[in-house]
Amino acid sequence: NHPIRIGIVGYGNLGKGVETELAFHPDMTLVGIFSRRDPQTVDSESAVFHMDDLENMTDQIDVLILCGGSATDIPEQAPILQKQFTTVNAYDNHAEIPAHFDVIDELAKAHQNVGVIATGWDPGLFSLNRLVAEAVLPKGDTYTFWGSGVSQGHSDAIRRVNGVKLGVQYTIPNESLIEAIKEGEEVAYTKTSSHKRVCYVVAEAGADLTAISETIKTMKDYFDGYETEVHFIDEADYYRDHQGMPHGGRVIRRGYTDDQTMAVYEFALDLGSNPQFTAAASIAYARAAYRLDQEGQYGAKSVFDIAPAYLSPKSGAELRKELL
Ligand SMILES: NC(=O)C1=CN([C@@H]2O[C@H](COP(=O)(O)OP(=O)(O)OC[C@H]3O[C@@H](n4cnc5c(N)ncnc54)[C@H](OP(=O)(O)O)[C@@H]3O)[C@@H](O)[C@H]2O)C=CC1
Ligand SMILES: N[C@@H](C[C@H]1CC(C(=O)O)=NO1)C(=O)O
What interface predicted TM-score (ipTM) does this complex get? Predict the structure, then answer.
């Protein structure tokens, strides 16, 4: 059986991450990168095509990994591509995920392929761990913290604001709240009250800075409700100080196995590169997407719908040896 043939759609941080990580997966091979830009202007060692070439390559690609931004690219591109390909994305506009699932599910069933949505870490592996923790510990509370680090989704979203040339968004968690939770103290937790969002923006010449700041701070699904800072810096400072993309976070379930015996379920990530880790998760789900497609299990899938064994390159027999 031949290696799984992968196409990357969108060559940004995530697309570059998939390109790099694929080298670690001998059961997969990169057919090419597909960009909306002129391929001559895209700097990569791999084969680069224009997005429009995809429709003539359906017999050369098994899975497309969609690496566009969630603010505007995925909602636009995913439905079109689902008509011709099995796809995987890291769509992370949490409020819109149920609607996105339904759109992809209808298309994937109609065109007899698979669409794995919202992979990555949040949504993705954090979602999976919240499900397991809440199924195992029905009595308790779940807390999610991100950072401190760079959110790709929020950085992508501010880059789409009119007048913004470059932008990055750091998410800062309330560390004292994390400690209080682990100490078993009663806490008042909401996602919006437990994080601060700090943005650094390089504005286009002549842009209305007040309008940019207001648009970011009130942005539905991304910033609305959070304490948000917007700082305007020049391009030199941006390239000097804001090129790293570390991130991470934790899912904590503080539950009870009887009326007062506490159990803390924690899943934590500490990521040197947020986009590279997200790309790595999407690749594992691309393997699952291919297998589900081969089995005729057509439709949209989230991380909740996919048995863990589908992610692994090891056979069932090999995996069962690891149960011991
Ligand atoms: N589920 C999760 O845990 C996570 C999800 N994500 C999601 O992944 C999405 C993508 O993140 P990220 O890769 O950092 O976003 P980028 O902004 O780096 O890339 C988004 C798109 O912008 C275009 N682009 C990139 N670089 C350039 C450039 N120099 N000039 C013009 N266009 C460019 C590319 O499309 P094209 O090549 O067609 O021009 C690319 O696909 C995020 O929006 C986020 O929603 C990210 C991290 C975690
Ligand atoms: N989807 C996020 C992954 C995590 C990071 C995050 C945040 O900092 O708000 N929320 O979810 C990303 O794009 O980085």
Answer: 0.98
Q: Using alpha carbons only, what angle is made at residue 96 by residues 94 and 97, rounded to the nearest 5 degrees?
A: 65
Distance 151 CA to ligand 2 centre (A): 4
Residue 27 Cα to ligand 1 midpoint, Å, equals 25
Residue nearest to atom 17 of ligand 1 (CA): 156
Omega of the bond leading into 148 within 30 degrees of 0 (cis): yes
Alpha-carbon distance of 281 to 270, in angstroms, equals 14
- Ligand 2 atom 3 nearest Cα: 122
Buried b / exposed e over 226-236, threshold 16 CB at 10 Å, is bebebeebeee
Closest atom of ligand 2 to CA, residue 121: 3
Number of the ligand closest to the Cα of 49? 1
Ligand minimally distant from the alpha carbon of residue 14: 1
139-197: pLDDT as tens digits:
999 999 999 999 999 999 999 999 999 999 999 999 999 999 988 899 999 999 999 99
pLDDT digits (tens, 9 = 90+) for 94-149: 999 999 999 999 999 999 999 999 999 999 999 999 999 999 999 999 999 999 99
Which amino acid residue places its CA nearest to atom 7 of ligand 2? 151
Q: Say how far apart CA 15 and CA 257 lie, in whole Å.
A: 43
Report whether residue 171 contacts ligand 2, using a CB cutoff of 6 Å.
yes
d(CA 168, CA 21): 23
Which residue CA neighbors atom 46 of ligand 1 most closely? 152
- Interacting residues of 128 by C-beta distance below 8 A, sequence separation 6+: 303, 304
pLDDT, mean over the chain: 97
